[in-house]
Predict the structure.
Amino acid sequence: MKKFFGNKIAIILFMLPALAIFVYFEFIPICQVFGYSFTSWNGVTKATFNGLANYKKLFGTSTFWKSNLNQLIFALIITVYQMVLATVFAITVSDKRTKGRKFLRVVYFIPVVLSVTVVCQLWTAMLDGQGLINHIFALFHAKGQDWLGDKHLAIVVVSFVNAWQWMGYQFALINAGMKSISSDYYEAAQIDGCSKVMSHFKITIPLLKETYKFCLIISLTGGIKAFTEMNIMTNGGPGRSTYTLTYMMYSAAFNQNKYGYGLSAATIMVLECMALMIFINFMFREKSSETEEKIARENIRRMAQYEAK
């Protein structure tokens, strides 16, 4: 059996079904998007090649640059919010002294299983001028805000809604990653007199490198592809203050019947996602497990010296 699974032909045969599905449903459509982005096409009649006209028009509009800025804001907010809180919550529930750990795991993950539409409608109602959030402000004699109507606040608020819903997913990943870390490291740190907080900074976080890489890819590429919350909560407004490249693509293709122009925005979005993934993989270049163990031991030694001072 081991000889069979070590056979390259057998490996290729097992990979073929999944590879065929990927090529047909992912690779070919992406190639079609790239091809149609060089055409003038309304989605029905025959496409007409127009070279780089769509890209020139795209780069020449202020909406394109505003959309990229919104994506950056969205991605940074959800990444910082989700990864910081998810790490704190994962460390909290991993401590055996924490009461109600099982209950907390469920509570943190509940928003993830809710429908995006339900979550957006819920937060839209709370963020309304007469909604719960402004009523809370009124209790403290503070001035309410037009949360979704302010062109400067809207993108930030929408980002927090997404971050709130999907933080539980990041929490589940980080919590699972922490369970794979050997307790020997923490015991050695405790023997050397290191505090729990420093142990997590020097042991937990460095050894969760692969988990954090995956979390970063999910959150940052998710920020670039942001669409649903904008579509439901603000409709891209006020004005175009919550536009993203995905929303530009949707608006051009389905509202204006300019599929070629919309697909040029989609192509740029795909290229940005690919560039970001390459950059993250470069920053998190893999090291051998032996090297990681050396890093953990060195961090424990440094912690002991720091605590002794």
Summary: The chain has 15 helices and two strands.
